[in-house]
């Protein structure tokens, strides 16, 4: 804020409430085609047939993990939005639904299961990044991001799990749980 010549009070005076601030911040991710937030070295080609897998990999990437300042607001603000008014919650829901829509187009499953799988993949991405950032141990945080990415890619049908140590998703999940105690 100081770089823009604003005090905290001056900045917040542009918004009616904290909920109004979150509504403006959240509205720009996944819903505004002009908003070009990406993390260094990570690109997503939305026209690609692999766009959903690219979204998952980008979302759970080390670059997104480390670039807190340019983070997806769904990772940075979920607990604050939970305490805000209905407007902020509706915008959060809209942004989450937009992410689900991007993923759903590429889920390899019968039509009736695509939406549920896309929701689960989006939740793995957002929740996985929230928890990874809350963990102090970097190795454990990286393992969590990797586990979420593997499960999300498998759930969406974007990767052959046999390439991952010839283990079932259940075995991979159990291995991860064993590492975190």
Describe the fold and architecture.
This protein has ten helices and no strands. The protein has 181 residues and is mainly α. The protein has a single domain, classed as Tetracycline Repressor, domain 2, CATH 1.10.357. The model has no long low-confidence stretch (mean pLDDT 78).
List the topology elements:
Elements: H1 8-12, H2 18-26, H3 51-59, H4 62-66, H5 73-76, H6 78-83, H7 86-104, H8 111-134, H9 138-156, H10 169-179
Helix pairs in contact: 2-7, 3-9, 7-8, 8-9, 9-10
Q: In total, how many domains does the architecture comprise?
A: 1
CATH topology: Tetracycline Repressor, domain 2
* Element-level helix/strand string: HHHHHHHHHH
% residues in beta strands:
under 5%
* Subunit arrangement of the protein: single chain
Number of strands: 0
CATH architecture assignment: Orthogonal Bundle
In the CATH hierarchy, what is the superfamily?
Answer: Tetracycline Repressor, domain 2
CATH class: Mainly Alpha
Q: What is the number of helices? A: 10
Structural class: mainly alpha
> Largest sheet, if any?
none
Level of helix content? 55-70%
Rounded mean pLDDT score: 78
Calculate Rg over CA atoms.
Answer: 18 Å
Can you tell me the residue ranges where pLDDT is under 50 for at least 5 consecutive residues? Answer: none
Based on CA inertia axes, which overall geometry fits? Answer: globular
Report, as a whole number of angstroms, the end-to-end distance: 41 Å
């Amino acid at each position: 804020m100081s770089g823009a010549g604003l005090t905290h009070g001056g900045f917040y005076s542009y918004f009616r409430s904290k909920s109004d601030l979150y509504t403006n911040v959240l509205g720009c991710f996944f819903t505004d085609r002009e908003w070009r937030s990406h993390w260094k070295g990570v690109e997503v080609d939305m026209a690609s047939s692999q766009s959903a897998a690219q979204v998952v990999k980008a979302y759970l990437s080390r670059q997104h993990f480390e670039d807190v300042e340019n983070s997806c607001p769904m990772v940075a603000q979920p607990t604050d939005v939970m305490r805000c008014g209905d407007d902020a919650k509706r915008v959060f829901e809209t942004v989450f639904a937009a992410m689900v829509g991007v993923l759903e187009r590429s889920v390899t499953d019968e039509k009736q299961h695509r939406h549920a799988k896309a929701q689960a993949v989006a939740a793995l991405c957002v929740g996985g990044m929230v928890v990874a950032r809350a963990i102090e141990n970097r190795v454990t945080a990286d393992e969590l991001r990797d586990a979420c990415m593997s499960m999300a890619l498998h759930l969406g049908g974007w990767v052959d799990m046999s390439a991952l140590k010839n283990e079932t998703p259940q075995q991979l999940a159990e291995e991860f749980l064993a590492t975190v105690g």
